[in-house]
Amino acid sequence: MIKKYLSLFINALIFLFIIFSIMIFPEESFKASLEGLNLWLNIVCPALLPFFICVEILIGLGVVSFIGSIFKPLMSIAFNVPGEGAFAFVMSIASGYPVGAKIIASLRMSDQCSKTEAQRMISLCSTSGPLFIIGAVSVGILKRPQDAALLLIAHYLSAISCGFMMRFYKKSEKSKKALHMTNPFRELVNYRKTDKRSIGQLMGDSVKNGVNLILLVGGYIIIFSVISKIIKVTGILTLISGIIDLIPLIGIDGNQYIPVVISGLLELTNGIKECAQACMPDLARIIMISFFIGFGGLSVNAQVSGIIQDTDINFFIYFLMKILQGVLAAIYSLFLSKLGNLPVFGAHSLYSGYNSLTWYNIIILSIKALSFLSLFMALISFTIYMIGYSSKLKNKLN
């Protein structure tokens, strides 16, 4: 009880400090909120909103259930989660933060998975979308489309690594193995029978849900932009940088890197923007941005916390895994940068011909990334299915 009241008291003090800071520095706060709004309106919104709406339509049509049924063997063997985890994983990759967490929370509340299974899945299915990494980050902010492949591969490898590690979480509680691949066409038809909405109603709901989600993302970007500015104008950032400078760490410049790190820890998009504008080596910039995308920032994690608050999913475990995912993404980007001579990472990479943030380029890039990943996952899942089928056939013959 004391711990609960102490937490409420600390939270109240923090938000009182923010409110008083806004009153004391109204001009700076207004400019920060305007910067966050412009960032959301000009980069994040056009990059994500059309895709949010299209994904909602695909869900209603049963296309994602069709895809999820194909990946069931892979999810069961690799991550020790039920077949529904395939749907959450594909949706998380397709839509980005925080769609995966929302789906898993829905699965848990409808008792379609256990608490342990939900905990495993949420560490795997909390990822950024390729549209954000390619369109908003590589093309829109960095102006370096050739970095898209490196950032994408590092990010999804880190998520898969965390998901694989979590398969051993409470390993005594094993998920029901589903080595057989259900008929995807039957899954699609069954979903459409369950979802009896007309096409017009489906499109209307998709637009409404997509707009609500993009507004939620925009609200977090703006509020964390203001918080980031408050930390700067109140001198807290200077104090932290000065403390870092006193620590005898070789090669660490507090005044150069700490403002960027704190901005990225608070809000993902603003942190990437600050990192792009900072004077630092290209490799250090890519590593830092990979960490930011993997961790997601406090803004994204606050969204997830709100989404899962009505479930019994442990947010602290999820938060620790997000920190680990950020670290792994940074490590993977460092190793992948050594492969710079390969066509996929070089100046003539798959994404090097897209130098402007047009909706057409964003859609084409997203289709390429999703198609490659989906085909790769489907091939692995089909291989697992064939191994299981061959084993069963051999047992029958014997």
Automatic annotation (TrEMBL):
UniProt keyword annotation of DNA repair present: no
Domain of life: Bacteria
Pfam families: Gate (PF07670)
Keywords tagged on the record: Membrane, Transmembrane, Transmembrane helix
Transmembrane parts of this sequence: 6-25, 37-67, 87-109, 121-142, 148-169, 211-231, 286-308, 315-337, 357-387
InterPro entries noted in UniProt: Gate_dom, Spore_IM_YlbJ
Domain Nucleoside transporter/FeoB GTPase Gate: 44-135
Transmembrane recorded as keyword: yes
UniProt name for this protein: Sporulation integral membrane protein YlbJ
Organism name: Lutispora saccharofermentans
